[in-house]
Amino acid sequence: MGEEDATRLGALYDAHAAPIRRYATRLTGDAAAAEDVVQETLLRAWRTPRILADDPETVRSWMFTVARHLVIDEARSAHHRREQPVAEAPEVEMRDATDAVFDQMLVEEALATLSEPHRAVVVRAYFGGMSTARIAQELTIPEGTVKSRMHYALRALRLALQERGVTR
């Protein structure tokens, strides 16, 4: 939008927004809805340059008609008919933590079936977020041993979870 267009749009807003807002507020009884009507009315006027070339009183009359039609269209819309105002907002759905607790118990039981060296590697990698090199350094074992223990630990963990009906 050029500077001239911005100036024209500003002048259009200054000349007509307040009266249209008052009119729309009277029709809707809602300041937010009235503001939407004002914006849409001014946008339609802006998109219809032949209207803006008319006499200012004719322009305002046209805008009041557009605003009235917008309010009527909104009142007739399915969206408006289906909305029911309520005194209080509905309760927010709370997620049940039961499944998470059971999952945690199953994982703990499955981890308990692993040998201590295998469990140490899995816990550090998955729950501690450590890299293979960091685990090797902390446990003072070679990285290859960490990888091997991780491989066998995950196989055993998968089997333990299958026995509990968790995985295929």
UniProtKB/TrEMBL annotation:
Protein's UniProt keywords contain Transport: no
InterPro entries according to UniProt: RNA_pol_sigma-70-like, RNA_pol_sigma-70_dom, RNA_pol_sigma70_r2, RNA_pol_sigma70_r4, RNA_pol_sigma_r2, RNA_pol_sigma_r3/r4-like, WH-like_DNA-bd_sf
Gene3D superfamilies: 1.10.1740.10, Winged helix-like DNA-binding domain superfamily/Winged helix DNA-binding domain
GO terms for MF: DNA binding; sigma factor activity
Domain RNA polymerase sigma-70 region: 12-78, 110-158
GO biological process: DNA-templated transcription initiation
Entry keywords, A to Z: DNA-binding, Sigma factor, Transcription, Transcription regulation
Highest taxon in the source lineage: Bacteria
Pfam families named in the record: Sigma70_r2, Sigma70_r4
Family per record: Belongs to the sigma-70 factor family. ECF subfamily.
Name of the protein described by the UniProt record: RNA polymerase sigma factor
Organism listed in the record: Brachybacterium phenoliresistens
